[in-house]
Write a structure and sequence with these properties.
The protein has six helices and seven strands. The protein is of the alpha/beta class and 193 residues long. The chain has two domains: 93 residues; 71 residues, GMP Synthetase, Chain A, domain 3. α1 crosses α2.
């Protein structure tokens, strides 16, 4: 059973916020299960880092999945199989599932994405952000244009997919992140000289 900090402490208040957030994202999970899952996530971090090191030459993506149960998914380049494992912690047991057969390592995927970034920016107007998914060989491109503009880009996207070898999705109506702009009350903008 996971240890829960006293609710009146700062750590306890932070845990309550985390639990509330987790349950809002996973409404079918009970409060006890949410507490256990969050505790296990904190306890397996060193094991996750060890997996990253062990499989550094083949690692495509490593993530904690929530369904059908909480487990660690390790996606690897190449066909060589790896037996699934379990990690035992104070709060519970976590399965480690290995999925092989991916085309790129994480580093190779992001190098490919970087190589094609100028092409993507020249062919797709109004890009405000990109998110890569190495395990899916997919890139999500945010644009500030509307759904009509995204629809007009379909033929361009098909051509870009052939050139890059990646699945490309466009998400419209995504303005530039406020974190990338000065916000009143935030850190002052740089002084112009």
């Amino acid at each position: 059973m996971a240890q829960v900090p006293d609710a009146d402490t700062q750590e306890g208040k932070e845990m309550q916020i985390q639990i509330h957030s987790y349950m809002s994202e996973h409404p079918t999970v009970s409060i006890d299960e949410a507490i256990t899952r969050l505790a296990v996530q904190g306890e397996v971090m060193s094991d996750i880092e060890a997996l990253r090191i062990e499989f550094a030459d083949r690692l495509t993506e490593l993530s904690i999945k929530d369904a059908p149960d909480q487990h660690i998914l390790v996606q690897l380049k190449g066909p060589d199989p790896v037996a699934d494992r379990t990690i035992n912690t104070e709060s519970g047991t976590t399965r480690v599932v290995f999925e092989v057969g991916h085309k790129y390592t994480q580093d190779e995927f992001y190098a490919l994405l970087a190589k094609h970034r100028p092409l993507l920016h020249s062919a797709i107007p109004g890009i405000t952000g990109t998110t890569g998914f190495p395990g899916e060989e997919r890139v999500l491109i945010d644009i500030n244009g509307d759904s009509r503009q995204a629809e007009e880009l379909k033929d361009t996207i098909k051509k870009l997919e052939r050139v890059t070898g990646l699945k490309i999705e466009v998400r419209p109506n995504m303005p530039k992140s406020v974190n990338a702009e000065y916000v009143v009350g935030g850190a002052p903008p740089p002084i112009q000289q």
